[in-house]
Write a structure and sequence with these properties.
The chain is largely without helices or strands. It is built from 2 helices and 12 strands, in the order βββββββββββαβα. It is rod-shaped and about 95 Å long.
């Protein structure tokens, strides 16, 4: 087709492969228009109406679509790098495989959009709405998001590493196998989310909500979980080696096969936990509360359990060699089971020594 200068700009226009570079199309009505493969680099489409338009493989690099209505539009494979999509409407739009590198999606509405395999590196998405959006395999690395809405979103296998997602909503979101390495997720809500086998090494999840979240076999090494909520979460097979779990209430959490070696549990409350047969060597449990906790056959060699209050803690056959158990409070049940633990080289105060020998 010849250049678009000879074509009327209106709804249902046929603008396939048109040259619209730098055109001022602000406020234009292009609903259901076919812009497949069109060149719209640097074009001004602020406030334009592109509902159900076809923009497959279109080049919109550096274009401005602030406040534009792209609801149900098809932008599959489009180049939206550096594009301004702030406050744009992308509800139910299709952007599979599109490039949004360095794009501005501040306050954009991407509700239920299909955005699988999109590239969002270094994009600005503060306040963006991704409610029930399909972002499977999307790449967010280096992106900046705070107060974003990912409720019910599909983020499995997404690369969200080294990004900022502070105080965002992820409740009921799917993050199976997602890469969250080194990501700032502090204050975010992951209530009832699905995070099986997610990789979160070195991530910041401080003050986050993980209540009822499924973290089966998740990688949480050296993760900051301090102050987070984790009631009834599933940590079966998760690796929390070196993680900071301070000031957390671990109530009825599933912990079968979890790795807590070297973890920090300062002022942590451990209630109704099955921690049998797991690796907890070098764990630091200080000024904590333990009530109805089963540690049978677990490895706590070199662990620190100082200033801990213990009630109904089963410690039969626990390896506490070289551990520190100072200024602990315990009931008769805990004491009797502690007598059956390996205490070789353990450091204890005189009161505990006396009670164990008596």
């Amino acid at each position: 087709m010849s250049t678009a200068y000879a074509v009327d700009i209106c709804d249902r226009s046929d603008l396939r492969f048109s040259d619209l570079r730098g055109r001022d199309l602000s406020g234009a009505s292009l609903n259901q228009s076919d812009l497949t493969g069109a060149d719209l680099r640097g074009a001004n489409l602020n406030g334009a109406y592109l509902r159900s338009a076809w923009l497959v493989n279109a080049n919109l690099e550096g274009a401005s679509l602030a406040g534009a209505d792209l609801s149900m539009a098809d932008l599959s494979g489009a180049n939206l790098s550096g594009t301004d999509l702030s406050r744009a409407k992308l509800r139910n739009a299709r952007l599979s495989g599109a490039s949004l590198v360095n794009a501005n999606l501040t306050m954009a509405d991407c509700t239920e959009a299909l955005m699988d395999d999109v590239s969002l590196e270094d994009a600005e998405m503060t306040g963006t709405r991704f409610f029930r959006t399909d972002l499977t395999g999307a790449v967010f690395s280096g992106a900046s998001l705070s107060h974003a809405n990912f409720v019910g979103a599909h983020l499995s296998w997404a690369d969200m590493s080294r990004s900022r997602f502070r105080e965002s909503q992820f409740s009921r979101a799917e993050l199976y196998g997602a890469n969250l390495t080194g990501t700032d997720l502090s204050g975010s809500d992951f209530t009832r989310s699905y995070m099986m086998r997610a990789r979160m090494t070195g991530a910041d999840l401080s003050d986050a909500s993980l209540d009822y979240a499924d973290l089966t076999e998740a990688e949480l090494r050296d993760t900051d979980l301090s102050g987070c909520k984790m009631r009834y979460a599933d940590l079966s097979g998760a690796n929390l080696a070196g993680a900071d779990i301070s000031e957390v209430v671990l109530d009825s959490v599933k912990t079968t096969g979890v790795n807590l070696s070297g973890a920090i549990l300062y002022k942590t409350s451990l209630f109704n936990l099955d921690l049998r047969d797991i690796d907890m060597h070098g764990v630091q449990i200080k000024k904590a509360k333990m009530d109805t906790v089963f540690l049978t056959n677990s490895n706590l060699a070199g662990a620190v359990l100082n200033d801990v209050t213990m009630h109904m803690v089963e410690m039969t056959n626990v390896d506490l060699s070289g551990a520190s158990l100072r200024n602990i409070e315990y009931d008769e049940f805990t004491l009797r089971s502690l007598e059956k633990a390996n205490l070789d080289g353990a450091s204890m105060d005189d009161r505990l020594k006396s009670d164990l020998s008596g």
